[in-house]
Amino acid sequence: MSLISFIILLLIHQLLAQECTIKDRDGVEICCPGFLKDQTNECVSKCKNVFDKTPRILIVGAGASGISAATRLLHHGFENVTLLEAQNRFGGRISTIPFGDSFIDLGAEWCHGQENNAVFELVKDKDLLQHSEPWDESYKLVRSNGEIVDDYTSKKLKGIFEKIQENKKDHLKNYNDSLGAYNKEYFLKALEEDTYATIDRDIAMEFLELFQKEIASAEGCKDVYDVSGKGNLQFKEAPGDQNMDWKGKGYVTVLNILMETGCRDLGILHKRILFNNKLQTLN
Ligand SMILES: Cc1cc2nc3c(=O)[nH]c(=O)nc-3n(C[C@H](O)[C@H](O)[C@H](O)COP(=O)(O)OP(=O)(O)OC[C@H]3O[C@@H](n4cnc5c(N)ncnc54)[C@H](O)[C@@H]3O)c2cc1C
Predict the structure, then answer these.
(1) According to the UniProt entry, where is the signal peptide (predicted)?
(2) Distance (Å, whole) CA 58 – CA 80
(3) Which terminal Cβ of the chain has fewer Cβ within 10 Å, N or C?
(4) Domain boundaries defined on the chain
């Protein structure tokens, strides 16, 4: 038999071999990973054995935390793991979507830091990350009516933004209001300085709104007025490169590694995630 015919036969065998599934105590069909059904059905008893001997574990949420917990449990022999996911997709705040011939991240995008960072630890030897510049400070400001803000005004306003960020550590230590209130207070204070006297107030206020939204996006919150000012200082950066990207493949790369996806969409979590299932109450 030639090598090619052997490979074709092997592929046909793999295609015909069914995955071994059993019904759990609730009658839900669960895939038994690692077992392929052969004619003897022997796998079912083996599979059942594994399931019956390990505790049933339900994980709420198939975001990075849930996926990480589930895959770790599986590696430690806990086979009876199910994830309940409210949405119709996994990933939670990690959402990489196709865009043109590449991908874009709607949520998490960069790997921040190289020490004490579980994400970096997981991928550091796999050549998946590269240094990336987070944004280009030369961006133009465009008003909702399409008017492009002149470079002088733009530079001045961005300067206030930078100053507020730089002074955050000192100012927020004893600040008792929200991060949004802090940004606004110091922004308005800066505007009173002579150097900003010629800046159009309407444009300045529009810029403040943009600035607050940018901070909200970085904080991962809906409203910066919900974020504690002082609490913001508790965030500790992991040392090392703060802006590493996934070479155009998106943050979902790290979830794919955890799930060990090869040709299967959900890898070792195949048939273990119950989508569109929101946990409503816990008794
Ligand atoms: C805009 C944005 C940018 C970010 N940028 C970065 C970045 O560049 N780098 C970085 O490292 N981090 C970044 N983060 C943070 C990172 O995305 C999160 O820390 C991480 O994804 C959180 O994962 P998680 O599993 O803990 O929570 P989530 O991702 O929120 O997952 C929780 C999951 O649980 C599900 N769920 C919730 N309630 C229920 C329920 N009752 N029943 C069933 N399912 C439920 C949700 O649908 C969701 O899928 C960013 C976050 C945002 C929002």
Answers:
(1) 1-17
(2) 9
(3) C
(4) 151-233
